[in-house]
Specification:
By secondary structure, the chain is an alpha+beta fold. The protein has two domains: 102 residues, Jelly Rolls, CATH 2.60.120; 139 residues, Jelly Rolls (Sandwich), CATH 2.60.120.10. Helix content is 34%, strand content 26%. Strand 4 and strand 5 form a beta hairpin. Helix 3 packs across helix 8 and helix 7 crosses helix 8.
């Protein structure tokens, strides 16, 4: 899915310069002739034979298709194919060169190398995904399409002790304890911390519908830290719960010093976005 360039990598905006530096750090340009398929709809990654890639378009124009229907056009400076790479899922659309094109493609190994060199890209891409999630949630609410019987799979789970060790020294907040049923964060509230579930379970709801449940190692509240906006959802303690609060500064340090953490967070956001988009379609 193409990303529309904006002016700065904050608040969900996309900066083509940040993307270019990221892709150049681990990939090389490749040319595609007009009419050449870059990837096919429903295409899957095959170990050794074919690996998913995400792309940055340097020159030309790429068309995105679902079946026989055109769903978008990628312009120079935009990225596409990122969700399939990050989630290791089949392609939801096909990409074809509408004109002679030059792209830089990154497979999962290249992506990991680039994250080590250019962690700012991860924050920017998270912001773009969160903006899309907010827009999609607004549409789903308007249609009454958020249902508790269509809950997300449990979020990506971290090693809670490892994450706690990584975060130590970055934040002075003590572990927070919530009794069963207690609200933790509220939809629309200004967010200043994300949380790691150390013990117990937390449920996440939007518009009164439970859409996700988190156990030890689950994280929530990170969206508001990325884009500086308000909380996207409510969170409440489903059982007696212990949470490790992490400030925005600590969150950004974790992304900077741990590419694995950055990639895991991107995977979580991408999975949520794919789920929401599927509900919308």
């Amino acid at each position: 899915m193409a990303v529309t360039p904006q002016t700065a990598p904050v608040g969900g905006n996309y900066d083509p310069y940040v993307a270019l530096e990221f892709f150049k750090s681990a990939g090389t340009p490749v040319d595609f002739k007009e009419g050449k398929t870059i990837f096919a709809q429903s295409e899957k990654s095959i170990p050794v034979l074919r690996r998913n890639k995400m792309y940055l378009l340097l020159k030309g124009e790429v068309g995105l298709m679902q079946g026989k229907h055109a769903i978008g056009i990628v312009k120079p400076g935009e990225i596409f194919g990122e969700l399939a790479l990050i989630t290791d899922a089949p392609r939801t659309a096909a990409a074809m060169a509408r004109t002679p094109c030059t792209v830089i493609g990154l497979d999962d190994d290249d992506f990991g190398k680039a994250l080590k060199k250019k962690p700012a890209f991860a924050v920017m891409l998270m912001g773009v995904m969160i903006r899309r999630m907010r827009e999609t949630v607004a549409l789903l609410k308007a249609r009454g399409a958020l249902k508790s019987d269509a809950a997300w799979k449990e979020s990506v789970v971290f090693d809670k002790d490892l994450l706690s060790d990584m975060a130590s020294g970055m934040s002075d907040d003590p572990v927070a304890v919530y009794r069963a049923g207690a609200p933790i964060i509220t939809e629309g509230q200004k967010g200043v911390r994300m949380y790691v579930v150390m013990e117990g379970r937390v449920n996440i709801s939007i518009g009164g519908r439970v859409v996700e449940r988190l156990g030890p190692g689950g994280v929530f509240g990170e969206a508001a830290l990325v884009d500086g906006s308000t909380r996207l959802a409510n969170a409440a303690a489903e059982t007696d719960t212990e949470l490790l609060p992490i400030t925005r500064a600590a969150f950004l340090e974790l992304i900077k010093f741990s590419p694995d953490f950055a990639k895991a967070m991107l995977t979580s956001f991408a999975g949520r976005l794919r789920f929401l988009t599927a509900r919308l379609n």
